[in-house]
Amino acid sequence: MHWITEDNYAQLMQSEAEPYLAAKRETGLDKRVEGEGIYYAHYRADAPKGVIVISHGFTESAAKYTESIYYMLQAGYEVWGFDHRGHGRSFRKNDNPYVVHADRFRDYVLDLKHLVETRVEPAAGGLPLYLFCHSMGGCVGALTMERFPGLFRKAVLSSPMLGLSFGKLPLHAVYAVMSLKGLSTGGQGPTSPVEAFPEERFEDSAATSEPRFRYYYEKKLGDPRLQTCAASTNWVREAIRACSLARSALYTAKIRVPVLLFQAGKDSFVKNASQDVFASRVKSCRLVRVPEARHEIFMSRDEVLFPYWEQIFAFLAE
């Protein structure tokens, strides 16, 4: 494995990883619903032994996983990345370019299922399909495995969003406030006013590697499509409901495949306790705690990141 280290990180990404990936990438739009295009990027591997589908986190895009995809390809896996609706280069229903909106959380699940069945499986040639998810994408991934158990052979959930953190505010109070706020906008308005892409500071971020944080932040500054940074009131309501379902005893009992769940010890975005509940209910779930990591474990410092990927590839190869 050729690792991209934090020393000269941006230079190495631009001179090595980006050209390598560009030569293997094909992009397009998948349309489960006419007029609602979902952007995807397919990366072909030489003599692949499996296929990995990436389900990204809230306000992210497939572009955030450039380094991750570089490692997946080196490990012998074809990769499909896509932008969830309301994110990146995919369809958006609301007018504010900074706000992620969802009418229904199940649309994320149906989009993923459609992409797998119409794009991934036909191109896979019978190779096993694996799922790699982060944060919101972990909730989407869990719900997808629960509703459609036969799609994937294994799944990696990295800091999955299975319970949102609102500090000391109880969930029912947050849900009620979001419902009231959304009355005038049909739920499409932001939870708080946002009219510009705000400056982001590494100190406040979910990463522990500043070079990795800076690299994607510069990408966002250069592409307005990547500048989502807030939630609509209805997204929050839908996310609360989705997390509750995804970790429920009824739904988790439907997951039939091995799951590797990484938990960040310094996570302030999602509830680790909810991940513990999920892991205890899934028949075959291995929980790995990473005490020194923030929410974005795949944006950690080298000494945490490289063992993280080694565990993932060992799990897929078992």
Could you give a short description of this structure?
With 318 residues, this protein is an alpha/beta fold. Helices cover 38% and strands 18% of the residues. The protein has an eight-stranded mixed sheet, sandwiched between helices. It has a two-stranded parallel ribbon with strand order 5-8.
Description:
It is a single chain. The protein has a single domain, classed as Alpha/Beta hydrolase fold, catalytic domain (Rossmann fold, 3-Layer(aba) Sandwich). Strand 3, helix 2 and strand 4 form a beta-alpha-beta unit. It is globular, with a radius of gyration of 18 Å. Helix 3 crosses helix 4 and helix 4 packs across helix 7. The chain is built from ten helices and ten strands. Helices cover 38% and strands 18% of the residues. It is α/β, with parallel strands linked by helices and 318 residues long. The longest helix has 19 residues. The two termini are 18 Å apart.
Defining key terms:
alpha/beta, about 325 residues, eight-stranded mixed β-sheet
What is the level-2 CATH architecture name? Answer: 3-Layer(aba) Sandwich
Number of strands: 10
Helix content: 25-40%
Poorly predicted ranges (pLDDT <50, ≥5 residues)?
A: none
Text of the CATH class: Alpha Beta
Q: In this structure, how is the largest beta sheet organized? A: 8 strands, mixed
The CATH homologous superfamily corresponds to Alpha/Beta hydrolase fold, catalytic domain
List the secondary-structure elements in sequence, H or E.
Answer: HEEEHEEHEHEHHEHHEHEH
